Amino acid sequence: MTKTHPITPCLLLDTARMTTNIERMRTRLQALGVALRPHVKTCKNIDIARQLTAGHPGGITVSTLAEADYFFEHGMTDILYAVGIAPGKLPAVADRMARGMALRIVLDHPQTAVAVAKAAKTFGTRFRVLIEIDADGERAGLRAEASELIEIAAILERAGCHVDGVMVHAGGSYHCDDTDSMRRMAERERDCAVTAAGRLREAGHEAPIVSVGSTPTATFAEDLTGATEVRAGVHVFQDLVQAGLGVCKIDDIAISVLTEVIGHRQEDGKLLVDAGWMALSRDRGTADQAVDQGYGLVCDETGQAFDDVIVTGTNQEHGIIGHRDGSPLNLDEFPVGTHLRILPNHACATAAQHEGYWIVDSPYQARRWLSRCRGW
Ligand SMILES: Cc1ncc(COP(=O)(O)O)c(C=O)c1O
Predict the structure, then answer these.
(1) Where are the domains of the chain?
(2) Residue 364 pLDDT greater than 70, yes or no
(3) Distance in Å, CA 99 to ligand 1 centroid
């Protein structure tokens, strides 16, 4: 839906900050000699994806088939669907491949490989597969040394599918305490991927793709020899979790939620605003970091952050704003009707609550509406 003017709460995008973030990652990866396959689940918008992929022939990464469809409709064909494939989605994958989408899927279980082999026969589709490898015990993937790696590749090859390589995502980088441990995590992510790809090649598979990456590991990696692509995503907007990790600065964060003061809580010196968890998300990703940002850090209308003023609570459409230490705010500084901006803990989660972005320039003025694709 086209929007004519912003109504709070709404998502603002500072394109100057975004462009700086994109360029910074591009320069880093160029220096490391590895291609970017940006994860576009963060932006879910074609204009931003085009800016992310400019100069990178390596295609995109998505987290839903709805994203794959949306970006394909806008001319992007080389797409990695980077969530372990559910066998129930294989007919949909086959259909998209038949329509010209160069769609790759990931899996890490022999049972899934058997389901893919069966679907390959049923639909006459030569599925393209990356086998997911685990670097940190955080989520999915086989250990690089697991015997199932070769078993899965053999099942796929017998069914005429392409064993295109391996994918590793070191989500454990989000729990690192310092830049040294993020550097080590980046090494581990690369080593696991390279080891697994080497084993596939020794077993006779081509495995041309060695796909690694998260924003923290991409930011701190020093040597990505053997990796063929990096899948960073959240770097496009950055967020408070990344700032807490030392990946970016608060001033790099490119999205914020515009909200308006709707009331005062005189008893505890807090503000009520019209952005609750529907607009901010319930993400509490900074809760276990050195600085807990509550449900988001509060800025004035121009995007200038206040010292230690955060969203302390959320209901569906109400946000409660107060001092981080619980001391009362001077409510006279925030009359009803004041516009504020909230920086997100997790950019992907907050953006996912919104249908699109209002592009803002500095000084603050909402200029243009950019829609986001949604759903699964
Ligand atoms: C498989 C995969 N690759 C890449 C990424 C991008 O990582 P980040 O959000 O840290 O940029 C994600 C994020 O969740 C992911 O799940």
Answers:
(1) 17-235, 250-371
(2) no
(3) 27
Torsion of CA 217, 220, 224, 229, to 10 degrees: 50
Nearest CA to ligand 1 atom 5: 214
pLDDT in tens, 79-124: 999 999 999 999 999 999 999 999 999 999 999 999 999 999 999 9
Is 250-371 a domain of CATH 2.40.37.20? yes
CA 21/CA 23 separation, integer angstroms: 6
Ligand 1: residue of 67, 104, 138, 214 to mutate (most ligand atoms within 8 A of CB) is 214
Task: Give yes or no for a contact between 205 and 250, defined as CB atoms under 8 angstroms apart.
Answer: no
Whole-number mean pLDDT of the chain? 95
Ligand 1 site, CB within 6 A:
39, 61, 82, 169, 213-215, 231-235
Quote the CA–CA distance of 346 and 295 in Å, as a whole number.
10
Looking at domain 17-235, its CATH superfamily turns out to be: Alanine racemase (3.20.20.10)
Q: How far is CA 338 from CA 4, 13, 194, 267, in A?
A: 21, 19, 53, 20
Backbone phi and psi for residue 184, each to the nearest 5 degrees, phi listed first: -65, -35
pTM: 0.95
Residue position matching structure tokens 């005062």: 264
